[in-house]
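Researcher: Re-running this chain for the archive, since the previous output was lost when a drive failed. Same request as before.
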Amino acid sequence: MSKVNVFDMQGNIVDEIELDENIFGVEVNTYCMHAALVCMQANARQGTHSTLTKSEVSGGGRKPRRQKGGGCARQGSTRSAQWRHGGIVFGPTPRDYSFTIPKKVKRNALKSALTSKAIDGSVIVVKDLKLDTFKTKNMVAVKNSLKVDDSALLVIPGRDENIVRSSANIPAFTTTYVNTLNVYDILRHEKLIVTVDALQKISEVYA
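Model: Regenerated structure tokens:
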């Protein structure tokens, strides 16, 4: 197991903890991470795009000109695709883009993402992260003490209104919970900040 330092809110090293090798020490599987990312992005699509075909646009009805003798190509309707305000050929219609992947693939993807952060040394463990009130400057002070840029993902064990609201206005800084942890959030942030309680809960839920 790899060991990482445990920091307090002032950025001081107060302890050392071992990362669970079943979570942070697996073989990184890029296929599983890619599959999980594509699945999440596809499931987030609304699929409400819609265009009108030749039979759905208004107008038309009669033949715009006679079939032969005009010196022009034959036309049956002014609402054909080649006419202005005509219908769309093979345009998008409402559809459901969502699909599912096996649970083992999803779990392996999450472990691979966490392992990649541990390999890069991007996992920061914090002990007793608590705020008395919700103010952005309080979370900014904690972030600066930990020497973390704005692009960071904070993982807490459960709902904490003060922490969530204090970090809401920090650009590229995201707060999530153990049960909502996902590959997309992990990979798109440079640093992963985890509380000690959240780290233990991750081992219990995803081991």
